[in-house]
Amino acid sequence: MESVLFGIGVTALAGALATIAGAAEDTESNIGSQGDPNSQVQLAPQMGYIHRIYNKAVSGEPPAYGLWVTISAGVAWAFMATGMNPVLALVIASALAIFVQGVYATTAYLGRTASLAKFEQPVYIDVLRSVTTVTMAHAFVAVFPAVAMCYLLIAALGHPFPLALLGIVWGIALGAAGSATGNPFYGKERQYQSQKFGAGVPISASGNIVRYAEAGQRSSLDNGWFTAKLAGPASGVCFGLIVFLEIWRTVLFEEVASGWGAIIAGVVIILIFMIIDRYIEVWARKNYGPYQAEATEEVSA
Amino acid sequence: MSAIAAGSGGGEGINPVASVIGIVLILVTLAITYIAAPVAIAALVGVIVGGLLIGFGVHFVPVGGAPAAMGQSPGIATGVAMLAAGAGLAGLFGGAWAAANPAFDFAVVIAAGAVGGGLMMAITCLMVNVIYIFGMGIPAASGKVAKDPITGDTQEAYKSQGTEGHGLPFISYVGGVIGGLLGGAGGTLIYYELLQVYAAALPTVFSADAAEVLPIAVSLAGIFAIGMFLVNAVLAAYNITGTIEGPHDPKFKRFPRAIIGCATASAVCGLFAILIVVV
């Protein structure tokens, strides 16, 4: 009984760490404009819209986070092998991984923006200076809990994978969850606020992103402020639920029916999520109704 | 050109010459394994089956890429290979955990991996719809079919003007879960088969106890499983070229050639993964 209670406590802690990691991951990727909507940031100058949005999407979020979490996990493992205190090792290793992220962010922003020189998109040095450090700070908040969670799964729950391998697994899953959940809100709601609410962005409006904030020109810091209100927490809940329920069903039901208990619990949870999804799909159709075209096109900012 | 307008240059049919070459390569890898390490032949078959399960599963995952992030096309707003890998690796996490328990048999381990991948996709798909519906005020609508094949909901009226649809219709949601289940099962199958080979061969290679080399066997099998997962997910993503809504999407019909490609790539990768311990 005590071991089950201990397992549930560790599960809750791992879920909480995953929630923090997911929320920070999405906010970081929105500030750095690394998710899928970055194609619009890259496209905008070609359509004649010069902007001050950061753009560091050389690869997708999942492989990038796979790299950073794995670097942190590998370095932490090496520190621990020398006898360093695990908490200290995890903190220092995460900080070192974030320097790699900072170098990546800097070179990616300079490279991608320089490639738009023929469309007269300048490289803003003040944007580089102000946004890079903020995106690094958010990346630290994402990477440290992710690695701490991986360590917890090994040290407390006895997962067979070594720390670096779990870093790859959960780093890629973290990026995938954040990229899937948070990106639409950043892409549609933030970059296309001039488009009318409650509809997808027409393909003809591609590249016409909103470039002005409440006071002056918008920078990527404004994006972090906006998306931290919904997209970030939603990504956090998504990744937190994935980690929590995955471990919870195993810890609680693994011994039931020689292993099938955890599998049956997983299937039941999947069916419950499916019912909730169907409910909100029907709710949206009833409450929003069919698409209504507007009489006049709104003028974009 | 947007990702929606971008078409596939390859068409939908199966290239007979390429398919024959692929099948010959699979037979060659099986023959080499049979000569070099007859005991590992079942493991290689398992790896090949795992690879084609991943390749098939990727076709179910509804992915809209950048257009989905603007509500221009249905699906999840990320890349095919990225999402499929995320779901499959979450499954591998559960599968590897189950494989570490000696009391569990083969079926439990594979099912644990499958459910892990399916669970990841179920949660992600739900949160995607939550963001679309409550964050952006957009109902789900498919651009590829007039009616949802499962619920019978009409799609056209709910589609915003100038888009290919948006959100995740129920058929896409179910497709995502099936894709996660298949990916998780495939990845775990590769891991499990390689683990058996390594656990049996490594004590001889290192002249050590089985318990001592088990962490090395687990790490090696895990690294190869992750690597082969990415190989198969990326190969299948090339077949999909950009976006796919799920099993109702016309691009889904291309899956047979991806299965041949993934089986061939898995056979070659699996051969090397086995040869490093038996030669």
Automatic annotation (TrEMBL), chain A:
The pathway where this protein functions is: One-carbon metabolism; methanogenesis from CO(2); methyl-coenzyme M from 5,10-methylene-5,6,7,8-tetrahydromethanopterin: step 2/2
Family named by the database record = Belongs to the MtrE family.
Q: Which InterPro entries match?
A: MeTrfase_E
Cell location: Cell membrane
Which reaction is the catalytic activity of this chain? 5-methyl-5,6,7,8-tetrahydromethanopterin + coenzyme M + 2 Na(+)(in) = 5,6,7,8-tetrahydromethanopterin + methyl-coenzyme M + 2 Na(+)(out)
Enzyme class, broadest EC rank:
translocase
Q: What keywords appear on the UniProt entry?
A: Cell membrane, Membrane, Methanogenesis, Methyltransferase, One-carbon metabolism, Transferase, Translocase, Transmembrane, Transmembrane helix
GO biological process terms, alphabetically, are: methanogenesis, from carbon dioxide; methylation; one-carbon metabolic process
Signal sequence: where? none
EC number(s): the record gives: 7.2.1.4
Q: MF terms per GO, please?
A: tetrahydromethanopterin S-methyltransferase activity
Matches recorded under HAMAP family: MtrE (MF_01098)
Protein name (database record): Tetrahydromethanopterin S-methyltransferase subunit E
Q: Which GO terms describe its cellular component?
A: cytoplasm; plasma membrane; vesicle membrane
Q: Which parts pass through the membrane?
A: 87-110, 131-157, 163-186, 226-245, 257-276
Query: Could you tell me what this protein does?
Result: Part of a complex that catalyzes the formation of methyl-coenzyme M and tetrahydromethanopterin from coenzyme M and methyl-tetrahydromethanopterin. This is an energy-conserving, sodium-ion translocating step.
Q: How does it assemble?
A: The complex is composed of 8 subunits; MtrA, MtrB, MtrC, MtrD, MtrE, MtrF, MtrG and MtrH.
Membrane topology annotation = Multi-pass membrane protein
The record's annotation in Pfam families points to: MtrE (PF04206)
UniProtKB/TrEMBL annotation, chain B:
Q: Which reaction does it catalyse?
A: 5-methyl-5,6,7,8-tetrahydromethanopterin + coenzyme M + 2 Na(+)(in) = 5,6,7,8-tetrahydromethanopterin + methyl-coenzyme M + 2 Na(+)(out)
Q: Which key words tag this protein in UniProt?
A: Cell membrane, Membrane, Methanogenesis, Methyltransferase, One-carbon metabolism, Transferase, Translocase, Transmembrane, Transmembrane helix
Q: What is its EC number?
A: 7.2.1.4
Does Cell inner membrane appear among the keywords? no
Q: How does it assemble?
A: The complex is composed of 8 subunits; MtrA, MtrB, MtrC, MtrD, MtrE, MtrF, MtrG and MtrH.
Topology term for the membrane: Multi-pass membrane protein
Name used for this protein in its record? Tetrahydromethanopterin S-methyltransferase subunit D
Where would you find the membrane-spanning parts of this chain?
A: 17-35, 41-63, 75-100, 106-134, 170-194, 214-238, 258-278
State which gene encodes it.
mtrD
Pfam families in the cross-refs: MtrD
- Look up and give the organism this protein is from: Methanofollis formosanus
**Where is the protein localized?**
Cell membrane
Any one GO MF term held by the record is:
tetrahydromethanopterin S-methyltransferase activity
What's the family? Belongs to the MtrD family.
